[in-house]
Design brief:
alpha/beta, 5 helices, about 25% strand, globular, seven-stranded mixed β-sheet, binds guanosine-5'-diphosphate
Length: about 190
């Protein structure tokens, strides 16, 4: 059953001025390109075609907002980690992040990390950016690619590398390992509108 049955694509923003109004609650999803972010969003939200919208050519480099329910949003950030990103993009990325961080509706950050690659420099930079002000939750994705023991080891290595306030879990969009746990974290954060 779809966890967020009313989920729909809201808008793509190339600049902070295009962000939706800063009310309600939203959670951002980020990750290195190919980490499995779109697959994770689809599995967690329970709508297969949702994150396909953000794979549409032209939209992949934008910040995509999805409305999960009234005043509850998921923010899909562009994948990072490719040195070949155009200069214009490298300039606008910090501005977009900064504007996002200032929103009072932003309740936390999900970072999708390919479990076989582990936490990369880009992931750490992003987690540092989120800082203590933002809660962060790391999904170690594609755990179906590892044995149970390897996955357990990867989880403890990643958890040890994380600072306080960052939670880490195993996840697989293919086998649905960890989907419910991720849904619980997302729902709890979205419920926080204080
Ligand atoms: P994104 O670029 O971070 O949005 O990543 P995608 O969701 O498009 O996935 C990148 C690649 O990883 C695709 O070939 C997916 O089929 C694959 N992938 C995503 N999630 C999983 C998973 O849970 N298990 C496995 N084995 N492959 C996955």
């Amino acid at each position: 059953m779809a966890r967020f049955p009313q989920a729909r694509f809201l808008l793509s923003a190339a600049a902070p001025a295009q962000f939706p109004s800063d009310s309600g609650a939203e959670v951002a999803f980020a990750g290195r390109s190919n980490a499995g972010k779109s697959s994770a969003i689809n599995a967690i939200v329970g709508r297969q075609a949702l994150a396909r919208a953000s794979k549409t050519p032209g939209r992949t480099r934008l910040v995509n907002f999805f409305e999960l329910s009234a005043e509850r949003r998921l923010v899909d950030l562009p994948g990072y980690g490719y040195a070949s990103a155009p200069e214009s993009e490298r300039r606008t990325w910090p501005q977009l992040l900064e504007a996002l961080r200032r929103r009072s509706s932003l309740k936390g950050l999900f970072v999708i990390v390919d479990v076989r690659r582990g936490i990369t420099e880009g992931d750490l930079a992003l987690l540092e950016w989120a800082g203590p002000a933002q809660r962060a939750h790391v999904l170690l994705s594609k755990t179906d690619k590892l044995s149970r023991n390897e996955a357990r080891r990867a989880l403890s290595v990643a958890a040890a590398a994380m600072g306080e306030g960052v939670s880490v879990q195993l996840f697989s969009a293919h086998t649905r390992v960890g989907v419910e746990e991720a849904q619980r974290v997302l729902s709890a954060w979205l419920a926080d509108v204080s």
